[in-house]
Amino acid sequence: MMTGMWALYAREVKRFQKIILDTVFSPIVSVALYLGVFGVVAGGRTITDGAHSLPYITFVYVGLLGMMMVNSSFSNPSFALIISKNVGNIIDLQLVPIKAWKIGVAYALAALTRGFLTLLVAVLATVWFIPGLGIHSWPYLIAGIGLTGIEFGMLGVSFGFWAKNFETLTFMTTFVMQPMIFLAGVFYPISTLPGKWAVLSQFNPIHHNINIIRYAVTGYSDTNPFISLVVVIGVSALFFGIMQFVTRKNLRV
Amino acid sequence: MQSLIVQNVTKTFETPKKQILTAVNDVSFTIEEGTIHGLLGPNGAGKSTLISMISGILKPTTGHIKILGIDVVTETETTKKLLGIVPQEIVVEMAFTVEEVLYYFSGMYGVPIAERRARILEVLHDLDLEDKMHERARNLSGGMKRRLMIAKAILHKPKFLILDEPTAGVDVSLRQKIWALVRRLNAEGTTILFTTHYLEEAENLCESITLIDHGQIIKDGKLKDIQKEFSKNMIHFELFNHAVSHMANVQMSGNEYEYPMTALGTDMAALTAHYGDNLKSIRSEAASLEDVFLKLTNRV
């Protein structure tokens, strides 16, 4: 029943709109602060992959936008579901005649919407301060943003259903998500890392999301963007499977 | 036709200490379409577990449950569409207004956008919540939140409505309104499964009951038949003048007399003929549901 899934999607979009200062505008403050700090520290440094050269601030900026997309998409469903569990209205999801996977997809699409909205507002607010920005590849940009939002939305749904309480979720966010984001090449090209660390970074799925978005905007890439696209599609399929399993297990005891 | 068939249903849970806890044990009962059926039992009897299985939230360990002939395990989404459920716990959306809560919830049950507003207004009118439509749900009083939960359950016009203690903690006036609504929905053709701790409520509303304790059915059937079965089979009467000769088997009980009943009409006629104008009052005593409940759950 698609009506049901879309109604749930609309409810989740409405929910984050109700607290838009927290959900959409607060991540932009973080991006602005990072930009301020890195702008001062980096000065006029440039980054090059051989074919492309770009100002370091531009490199970091696009990485930060990718990081924001990952964070927003992940936190939207995970926190919504944990709050529902605490308040007790998770029972609504157990009662409604919507298949478990559609419930997951509705939450993941709402996560994508929030991620995209946050990204849009952030770009409009900060793009004026960044030199040399354009769109290198629209297909990669659309795929990068769309897949990143859905992928981490689905991961957020899985964490939200799986985590028993806020502490578990915060633990996972702090000790799993944040290290992965910071080691994904947001702030530095992974090619600058010593040998095995550069190879290890290739196994960090978030690196490929950042890489696609950065390539789409600037033309610069740490890894072949097509390989990154394949990895992101594969990881998304994996996260879909996990989400479906966890959602079904938690909605039907 | 039977709206609900519960057939040999058992639900076991594994405790953290790896012990097997049987919450519902080989339960079977049916509910006829268009009736109000009471599911009664003391706290911890297994009522909520049973309702969760009927609702499709819990999967029975063994046995089958069918709603209007459709299996709740294999066709969960279909049976969920037929059901309206008012859970025991009062839970509301924190951020949304009453209208928003109902708008999205009815959407999740497949009510088309074009019909939602009219349906919301109709339900809010029925539940006296029209003037609260634009208020945040979390700011409503307890009774209003309870009504909002009932509104959520009936928005999509379910064929089978489950009310899990809907009148717990509500005032007398609201309780009467909920009873009236339940009777009206039933008159319109909705089959209703009702759990309550107020036995006089079940007596007032339900045509049939299932009484469970320790996860097992201890009585099931038409309320009147059960009451008849448990009535004390005594005729009670009072006399103006006590200094008279008594019929055989008449015994004094407080200020009145008891006569063991064999056939109500014949016995009443015999007593009336014997005591004539000396008879102050005469009645047969039916068992209340409370009597039945206490007796069957061994709480007397």
Overview of this protein structure:
The complex is a heterodimer of chains A (253) and B (300). Chain A has helices spanning 2-18, 20-42, 56-87, 91-95, 100-126, 138-162, 166-182, 195-201, 205-218, 225-251; strands spanning 46-48, 53-55. Chain A is mainly α. In chain A, helix 2 (20-42) packs across helix 5, helix 3 (56-87) runs antiparallel to helix 5 and helix 9 packs across helix 10. The longest helix of chain B has 16 residues, at 172-187. Helices cover 35% and strands 29% of the residues of chain B. Chain B folds into 2 domains: 2-225, P-loop containing nucleotide triphosphate hydrolases (Rossmann fold); 233-284, no CATH class. In chain B, helix 3 crosses helix 4. The chains are: A mainly alpha (253), B alpha/beta (300). Chains A and B meet through helix 1 and helix 4 of A and helix 2 and helix 3 of B.
Summarize the structure in short:
Chain A is mostly helical and 253 residues long. Chain A contains 10 helices and 2 strands. In chain A, α1 packs parallel to α5, α2 (20-42) packs across α5 and α9 (205-218) packs across α10 (225-251).
Number of helices of chain B: 10
CATH topology heading of the largest domain in chain B: Rossmann fold
Secondary structure: number of strands of chain A: 2
Distance between the termini of chain A: 22 Å
- Widest sheet of chain A: strand order? 1-2
Biggest pleated sheet of chain A: 2 strands, antiparallel
Kindly state the percentage of residues in helix of chain B.
25-40%
Major sheet characteristics of chain B: 6 strands, mixed
The assigned CATH architecture of the largest domain in chain B is 3-Layer(aba) Sandwich
Provide the low-confidence segments of chain B as ranges: none
Q: Using a beta-carbon cutoff below 8 angstroms, give the protein chain pair with the largest interface and the number of residues from each chain.
A: A-B, 27 and 31 residues
What are the secondary-structure elements of chain B, in order, as H or E? Answer: EEEHEEHEHHHEHEHEEHEEEHEH
Low-confidence runs of at least 5 consecutive residues of chain A:
none
Q: Structural class of the helices, strands and pairings of chain B?
A: alpha/beta
CATH superfamily of the largest domain in chain B: P-loop containing nucleotide triphosphate hydrolases
Q: What is the arithmetic mean of pLDDT of chain B?
A: 89
* Domain count of chain A: 1
